[in-house]
């Protein structure tokens, strides 16, 4: 099995690209989606997060905005949250890999692939990227996002230029969806050829 890592900074279009790979028949583990599940209504981490960060959960699960306010500017609080989340996501990822052990290629969609050393566990790295002005306009259009919050998030992430330099493939999402889909199809074909060689 070839394990491929997909990453990209906030607002680069990684979720869209991830779905395109799934449409190409490549099994995808979406770390963000797993975190949402763990923090959602009756999620496995809701109780532990409330115990560590009182007032950040409700009937719908974790209030992600309230939790972000609590941890983004507080490194120790962020480490405490990550100590809850990362082991749970790792268990889900291992279950995914076991389930797809017979597949020639699987894709791990991991936002902090470089930052949390996940790149060491993959054979190929795909980086989703767009120019900084495109990224900024996408992110600031999100509900509840502010320039300050965006800046805090960027400080937690490896700069885009460094990610691109370390990638096996870069997927530029500044153009049309069709152009991005064509790039995904070409890369999927290259990966399949290598995986079956």
Secondary structure layout:
Blueprint: E1 2-7, H1 14-23, E2 28-30, H2 31-39, H3 46-52, E3 57-58, E4 61-62, H4 64-71, H5 75-99, E5 105-109, E6 124-129, H6 132-140, H7 147-156, H8 160-166, E7 169-172, H9 177-196
Parallel strand pairs: 1-5, 1-6, 2-5, 6-7
Antiparallel strand pairs: 3-4
Helix pairs in contact: 2-5
What does this structure look like?
This protein is an alpha/beta fold. It is 53% helix and 14% strand. The protein folds into 2 domains: 1-27 and 103-197, P-loop containing nucleotide triphosphate hydrolases (Rossmann fold, 3-Layer(aba) Sandwich); 42-99, no CATH class. The chain is globular and about 50 Å long.
Report the strand count. 7
| Count of separate structural domains | 2
Shape: globular
Largest sheet: 5 strands, parallel
Which ranges are low-confidence, i.e. pLDDT below 50, for 5 or more consecutive residues?
none
Number of helices: 9
Q: What would CATH call the class of the largest domain?
A: Alpha Beta
Termini separation: 12 Å
List the secondary-structure elements in sequence, H or E. EHEHHEEHHEEHHHEH
SSE-based structural type: alpha/beta
Q: Can you name the CATH architecture of the largest domain?
A: 3-Layer(aba) Sandwich
The amount of helix comes to 40-55%
Report Rg: 17 Å
Give the overall pLDDT as a whole number: 93
CATH topology of the largest domain: Rossmann fold
CATH superfamily of the largest domain: P-loop containing nucleotide triphosphate hydrolases
* Strand arrangement in the largest pleated sheet: 2-5-1-6-7
